[in-house]
Amino acid sequence: MNFKKMIIINSIIYFLLCFLFHYVYEWFPNPILSIFFPVNESIWEHMKMLWTAGLVSCLIEYLILKNNNNVHNNFALVAFIKSIIIIPIYLVIFLPIYSLTGENMFLAISTMLISIIIVNIIEYKIIMLPKLKYQFLAAIVSIINVYTIMGVLTYKAPHNYIFYDAKKHLYGINDYIN
Description:
Elements: H1 3-27, H2 33-36, H3 43-67, H4 75-101, H5 105-127, H6 135-155, E1 164-165, E2 170-171, E3 175-176
Antiparallel strand pairs: 1-2, 2-3
């Protein structure tokens, strides 16, 4: 299987994982899963969904490519970069639309799909680079740091509209307004 075909398959896997991951915490609420999956309907919590789905889709991609004896360079770095850059890409596209239209599921899902396609194109460019030294260690440390930040911001969410869940009227997981 060539990389271009895998990128298309990965876009579909990534998109489907986002839908699955949206509900994981709701189905299995616990403190560990709250770090990885959305705990409410705030914009911030959906960024955790994009982040985790990106990492898992890269792992699935790696396993498929490895099974076909076609593993690309810089796998861990690609997983980190792809998963982290989707957050600002999504927000740059989504926030102006959200401020004009308010909550609109079709626009949110369309924006998510566009963002996934963009990061998968970027992934393709990175995998064509020569193997980078220490990329695995740097990526693993960075992934752990991002999940640490996500955990802290889930339990100590700033009172900012990105962290606000208008449906439940709360910030993060513990801070009820009513």
